[in-house]
Write a structure and sequence with these properties.
alpha+beta; 4-stranded antiparallel sheet
Length: 149
């Protein structure tokens, strides 16, 4: 299936913007369209999705433990594998460098890399391959290189 470049650009720009509006307004669903096409972004409470209240608790716990939270910058499906049947890009205990990709979030067929903000060791993986994630949802926790013993 080929994708119209204008439609792809609209998806790349509008889906994150709509997800941000959902988060900021507390709305359950936002829809925009141009007559022929519609983009609808809806909050999900299905399996694998962390509620907003739980995210805040996880962030506090991570801060108390001196961990860095790696959060999703997109709404979509988290993909930890480089290809089917391959091991995940990172596992608990792996050392990672600043900017290293640990997976990606698939947003309507467009991959958005999830990169660690600083060097360290993967302490916890909070989502599994194929789980739906929300904007700002913690995906992993990282112990800073200087804090790893």
């Amino acid at each position: 299936m080929t994708t119209d470049p204008d439609w792809k650009a609209a998806l790349d720009e509008d889906v994150p913007r709509l997800a941000r509006l959902l988060r900021e307004t507390g709305a359950e669903e936002i829809e925009i369209g141009d007559g022929a096409r519609t983009i609808r972004v809806r909050r999900s409470s299905g399996p694998g999705v962390v509620a907003a209240e739980a995210v805040a608790v996880d962030d506090t716990e991570a801060a108390d433990e001196g961990l860095v939270v790696v959060a999703s910058e997109q709404v979509g499906v988290f993909v930890a594998l480089t290809e089917p049947g391959a091991p995940p890009q990172v596992q608990i205990g792996d050392a990672v460098e600043e900017g290293q990709t640990i997976g990606y979030v698939d947003v309507l067929g467009v991959a958005h890399d999830v990169c660690v903000p600083e060097a360290g060791v993967i302490e916890r993986l909070l989502v599994r391959d194929g789980e739906v994630v929300e904007y700002g949802q913690p995906l992993a926790e990282l112990r800073r290189s200087g804090d790893a013993d």
